[in-house]
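Q: Please design a sequence for this.
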């Protein structure tokens, strides 16, 4: 899989039309890590993932994925290393589930119409892992939000990258589907993949992520482990007063916000 460092950013800065969106970001995420990216709306989280994926190019700084400068790679080579799952990834066309999953093999195929035995095996394995095998012939547009999200993650797994960039993978899902997706994402990291996921729910991040990155106004404000997250951090990043509590049975910490901060 290459370098032991899944993602490394050195002084990354990015601007939209002269307006600075990301400023001087340094970041390291080892391979085999599930890291969460948190912060208020407009902090630059999605823009950061797009810069790491190669979809956007920073004005300053360096982006290394598995030790390789991501913006110097050709499209197919980059797609074999990193995948970016956007919140709008759900299909609006009546492709079958199997067809959507097979799209993950495009970086390895000479034609979208031909698939090797390895491609077919990769798709079968991805559908098995995400438990969508029984849906293979269904139009993806007929599925629930949770099922569609599992299909898109299956497509990403079928792509077989070293790094997964997930933009709000649990958005618009109920609690049971949230946990299903996060358990699946956790398994990817345990298998040695690097997963960097934008999460709006701090409590999901505390439960599943080993690194928590908090963004504020285009800068990286904090890089913490779950046991380092404090009420001061929550107040500074989100502008709310909160208590950090711990479940006596599971030992899992969680944030309980109780008022808007007046500081």
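A: Design:
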């Amino acid at each position: 899989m290459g370098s032991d460092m899944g993602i490394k950013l050195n002084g990354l800065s990015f601007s939209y039309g002269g307006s600075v969106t990301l400023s001087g970001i340094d970041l390291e995420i080892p391979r085999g890590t599930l890291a969460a990216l948190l912060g208020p709306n407009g902090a630059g989280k999605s823009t950061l993932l797009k810069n790491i994926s190669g979809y956007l190019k920073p004005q300053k700084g360096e982006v290394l994925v598995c030790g390789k400068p991501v913006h110097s790679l050709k499209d197919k080579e980059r797609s074999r290393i990193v995948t970016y799952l956007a919140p709008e990834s759900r299909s609006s066309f009546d492709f079958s589930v199997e067809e959507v999953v097979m799209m993950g093999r495009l970086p390895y195929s000479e034609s979208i119409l031909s698939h090797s035995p390895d491609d077919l095996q990769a798709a079968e394995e991805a559908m098995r892992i995400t438990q969508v095998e029984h849906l293979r012939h269904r139009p993806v547009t007929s599925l629930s939000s949770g099922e569609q999200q599992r299909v898109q993650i299956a497509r990403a797994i079928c792509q077989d990258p070293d790094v997964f960039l997930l933009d709000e993978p649990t958005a618009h899902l109920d609690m049971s589907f949230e946990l299903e997706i996060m358990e699946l994402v956790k398994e990817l990291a345990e298998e040695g993949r690097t997963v960097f996921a934008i999460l709006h729910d701090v409590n999901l991040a505390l439960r599943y992520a080993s690194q928590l990155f908090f963004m504020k106004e285009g800068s990286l404000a904090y890089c913490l482990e779950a046991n380092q997250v404090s009420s001061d951090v929550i107040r500074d990043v989100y502008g709310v007063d909160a208590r950090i509590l711990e479940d006596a049975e599971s030992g899992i910490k969680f944030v309980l916000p109780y008022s808007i901060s007046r500081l």
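Q: Thanks. Anything notable?
A: The chain is about 30% helix and 30% strand. The longest helix spans residues 175-190.
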